[in-house]
Design goal:
The complex is a heterodimer of chains A (about 270) and B (about 260).
Chain A: H1 2-20, H2 23-28, H3 31-51, E1 55-56, E2 59-60, H4 61-76, H5 81-91, H6 94-98, H7 104-135, H8 145-168, H9 177-190, H10 202-210, H11 213-216, H12 218-225, H13 229-259
Antiparallel strand pairs in A: 1-2
Helix pairs in contact in A: 1-7, 3-4, 3-7, 4-7, 4-12, 5-8, 7-8, 8-12, 8-13
Chain B: H1 3-24, H2 26-53, H3 62-79, H4 88-93, H5 97-101, H6 107-113, H7 119-134, H8 138-164, H9 172-187, H10 197-201, H11 213-221, H12 225-251
Helix pairs in contact in B: 2-3, 2-7, 3-7, 3-8, 3-11, 8-9, 8-11, 8-12, 11-12
The chains are: A mainly alpha (about 270), B mainly alpha (about 260).
Chain lengths: ~270, ~260
Amino acid sequence: MLKSMDKYMAAAALSAKNYLAYTSEVIFRSGFLVVILFVFVNLWTVTYSRSGAGVIAGFDLRQMLRYLVFTESIVISRPRVHQKVEEDIRTGAVSYTLARPYNYLLFQLSVSFGERMVRFMCTLLVGYAVMTIMIGPYIPGLSALPFLAVTVALAMLADLIGMIAVGLLAFWVEDVSPFFLVYSRLQMLLGGMIIPITLFPSFLRRLSEWLPFRFMVYAPARLFVDFDLNRAWGVAVGQILVCLLLFLIGMSVYRMGVKRLDVNGG
Amino acid sequence: MSTAGKYFSLFLGYLHINAKGLLEYRVSSLIALFGSLLNSAIWLVFWWVFFRRFPNISEWQFVHLFTIWAVLNVALAFVSVFYNVYKIPAIINEGKLEYYLVRPKNALFHLLIARMRLVDLVEAFIWFISFIILKPELPAVILFLVMSVISSAIIHGFLLILGSLGFFLKSADGIGTELYNALITFSTYPNWIFGGATKWIIFTVIPAGFISYVPVQVIYNRVYWWILGSLGFAVLLNVVGCVVFSRGLKYFETGNTFVLRAD
């Protein structure tokens, strides 16, 4: 089992290595992240100050801002793997992969995961620099770092599997962008990217708890600002289940799609 | 036919062509419309949650945030009638400008109207109706339209200046995109969250204050002198944009890429 995973790990490592060549470009093109973080710092500083509350929805001001750095870094680092899958299906390139000794979904997952790890480190670096300048440095406990690394990796894997599953809908439709739009916007709100889900009214919070998005954004970001070992285990278990569930859905969609694949020409 | 008549006729011609394009690609247009509305809806839910949790945080309420989103979206739809204003650096760099230079019409005007994103007008209509439902008072509706038009002129002038820098800077496209994104981001937040130098920046370098704070002042507090102030600023930005573009044309040297039909 582990041996058969070697090729996917190699693909992820190669993708990360390739993308390392673009790190300076990613950092210099992070203007939007800087602007949005600047706006968030202003919004929440004023909100905490005017409301007179020290803690809002379980976060103090610094935790709230660090939470937003983390959620933005996770989401902005997302590569457009759904478009790659869509293109493979539309151009028929997916048919060449059928004969190759790998699982198409796992291969796309590995390549996009390698790229995303590099992008995430770059965006987190920029966000961290902005926050350090504006509210001071933050160093999470060293004992928390291995758990954080695992939970971030699982969050990204879950998200990437979801994106690939959306891309696989190209077996049936010409353009998957509306589906991805719904996926990404639901993640933005109900995943807790722009606001922690603990701030939601009860019906929205219940909705968020029923959907997998909070494991992709809110849960790892919450651990980043307020680490708790028991919660970390719970999050990791939840994330693994979400990954498995999404993978099964993705593989079912892929198998159904491949059955109706009809390639013309050579 | 007078010169103005000829230009108006050209405008109508392009309007007709672009409207046919909209009908031809109606599915992708509808997808774009759906996407834009969904994005706005998600942000409005964020603000609804925010003001539900902090109702007394300022004199602003959810209705004010809805208004600035509505003004911004209607303004962006009007800018979309001159959609190439977003593409000026690319048009210069990809050899598409020459097409307009050899035509017997003002190159800037011709370039701006050649491509329109008319589906955005459908979105503007939806925002306009939503605003009427929100505030069914004739003066407020008229002021809403006035401020939307002025805001669109401000965004257009801002984009024209940034785009015309493409004559002088190879990286104008990237810089322009970053500044435009900053303008849109700042425009969707209430101005009272900013202090110090940022308050000045949003009324000068990145004129988002004219698109968010000013419409609320005019529509809800009836501070009418702001209309003249923002109108003057809109005219200034567009005049400066035209000057930078014409200076850039003098500086411009054609490359070896020649595109027969640009859009």
